[in-house]
Please model this.
Amino acid sequence: MKSGQWTEYIKGNYGQRNDSLFLRGLYCNADFSYKDKPGCFHFGLYEDIFKISKKTDSVYQLTSTTAVIPLTIRLIKRATCNPKPL
Model:
């Protein structure tokens, strides 16, 4: 458990509506292969809803509806998207 610090991975989908972020996926390994056996860490389905609040231009805070500790996320690099027709 590396002194109380560990990383878990989830492969799935997300959606946003107004100030809410919806996440749904499955727990997976670091190589993004799905976990199929229970162990010390989580496995199976992951679902959560976060309320998004903007702190600064590049810092947002995500508050989970199921957890007590909020997550702070920081923009590292801006990307532009140029959609192409199908």
Notes: The first strand starts at residue 9 and ends at 17. Residues 9-74 form one domain. The chain has one domain: 9-74.
